[in-house]
Write a structure and sequence with these properties.
The chain is an alpha/beta fold. It has 10 helices and 13 strands. Helix 6 packs parallel to helix 10 (about 330-340). The protein is globular, with a radius of gyration of 21 Å.
Length: about 350
């Protein structure tokens, strides 16, 4: 018999992984509306869960109140106040394991994600590579909930949910006839980033075709690049550092399409029901990290026996002496836009 006591869900980082957890929990809430959920993650990620009914967000502060073993025990005591019925560990890192150890000592049911490390190692090894689609990360998340006794079916449908635009962004959408294209050109690991000069060629072509372009995601150095593009090309807008994550989600929800690396931008657009053309270099959608509801046919990548060589994109991938992502020409990206109906 299923318990109606809250499920504590743990996923502390990274942003893209937390966004995927939000997509799964949205499906879970629709199929199990009477089961409360407590999502434990960093405060930065709270907006991903704001519209999920019967879900409470509990902030994890790894650098302050929840630092170290004592801090994790404090977090454990805070979570006990919800009267939990089970723990779903979607992270399986050192911190989540230590936190679960406190729950296990008091006989709470716990299930943990199987990350599939063995098959992922076979996918990225240089010799005898096994190139086949692996179980998607969102299914691995759902498996944890299933193991706790909650059946869940993932439908992989993009559910577009346009939100009211921030007041300061409304003028960007004044031209109703201009296609609205988001571009998330940066990533945590540099090897996953499409070369800046080539991305500029793509932006130039889209701008010349009359598209309105929004640049998302990054820090100070990425902001400088985006600002330079915004100065050079008409209707290109830098959003980096100018809007909160929640406001960016509102803007993304009103886009026609997103162009993204294998990064958080792809997952944010997926959460908002927006189609994504994604660019892949050292990584590969077969590893299971394609955005929720996105199609493999919208992945832009080159076929080469050395790809993929990384699950997370944290090391270079050379194909015949050239970084594999550099082999993707701007024309391939523009052609993909044309294939799906954009007049560019």
């Amino acid at each position: 018999m299923q318990s109606k006591r809250p499920i504590i869900v743990l996923r502390f980082s990274a942003m893209g992984d937390v966004v995927m957890a939000a997509s799964v929990l949205r499906e879970f809430r629709q199929q199990h509306p009477d089961v409360p959920v407590v999502m434990v993650s960093r405060e930065l990620f709270r907006p991903f869960f704001d519209d999920i009914a019967n879900l409470k967000f509990h902030t994890f502060n790894p650098k302050t109140t929840h630092r170290g073993i004592r801090g994790l025990h404090r977090l454990y005591q805070e979570l006990l106040a919800y009267g939990p019925g089970a723990i779903a560990d979607l992270h399986a890192n050192l911190r989540s394991r230590l936190l679960c150890a406190f729950f296990r000592a008091n006989a709470y049911p716990i299930q943990r994600i199987d990350k599939g490390r063995k098959e992922k190692a076979a996918l990225i090894r240089s010799r005898n590579k096994i190139l086949k689609p692996l179980r998607r990360t969102v299914e691995r998340y759902a498996d944890v909930l299933r193991a706790l006794g909650y059946p869940i079916i993932l439908h992989y449908r993009l559910q577009r949910r346009p939100l009211p635009l921030p007041q300061t962004a409304m003028h960007y959408f004044a031209d109703q006839h201009s296609p609205k294209i988001g571009i998330s050109p940066f990533a945590q690991h540099p090897y996953k980033v499409y070369p800046i000069p080539k991305m500029e060629e793509v932006i130039s072509s889209l701008a010349k075709a009359g598209c309105t372009i929004f640049i998302f995601g990054g820090g100070a150095s990425e902001k400088a690049v985006a600002q330079d593009w915004a100065k050079k090309y008409p209707k290109v807008y830098n959003l980096i550092g100018n809007f909160t994550i929640h406001q960016e989600m509102e803007i993304i929800s009103n886009l026609d399409i997103m162009l993204s690396m294998d990064s958080a931008g792809m997952h944010l657009a997926s959460l908002m029901g927006i189609r994504v053309l994604s660019i892949w270099g050292p990584t590969h959608p077969y590893a299971g990290f394609l955005g929720y509801g996105q199609q493999e046919s919208d992945c832009i990548q080159i076929n080469h026996p050395f790809r993929p060589n990384s699950v997370y994109g944290n090391k270079p991938c050379y194909c015949d002496g050239i970084p594999c992502i550099n082999l993707i020409e701007p024309g391939m990206i523009i052609d993909k836009f044309r294939q799906i109906g954009f007049d560019v």
